[in-house]
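Section 3.1: Structural characterization of target chains.
Under the original work plan, the team committed to producing a structural model for every single-chain target entering the pipeline before any wet-lab resources were allocated. The record below documents one such target. The sequence was received from the expression subgroup and is listed exactly as submitted; it comprises 158 residues.
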Amino acid sequence: MNPNLQLHGVFVRRINLDTNALPQEIGNVAQRNFEFKMNLRNDWRPLGGINEYAATMTLTLSATVDGREVEVGEFVLEVAATLENFDEVGKQQVLNYFLPNQALPYLRELVSNMTGRTGFPQVVLPALLYQPTAPDTQQPALEGTPPAIEGAKTNLLH
């Protein structure tokens, strides 16, 4: 039988972005040293039904201006799906790569929209974060965070 994947939805589980300082307190942000750090992790868990799973993406973000922490946030999204007739390698690739990438456009929008409204530079995530291993490998895909979020950037609004 052929593998069958049914997506049930992308759900926002938690969003918070705390602004510890106002841009007016800092001065001209565009001329300051703005840095951000992100930690992105994904994991998955079985749901109550047969072959039902939820893949979770959690992004933690902190931003500093000249070494002063100005923003701290956490964004958690979950994708629910049913996977039928997948071998273990295929199942791992769907749960660790395909499903998190399905949530990524929503995560990108939330992060860029919320960070852009603070008055500090907008954080824009790359379009693709998780790439599967070559299909001919016999090893299951590994869970976890990509080594670096390559391509993430900020857009200066001022």
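Helices lie at 23-26, 88-116.
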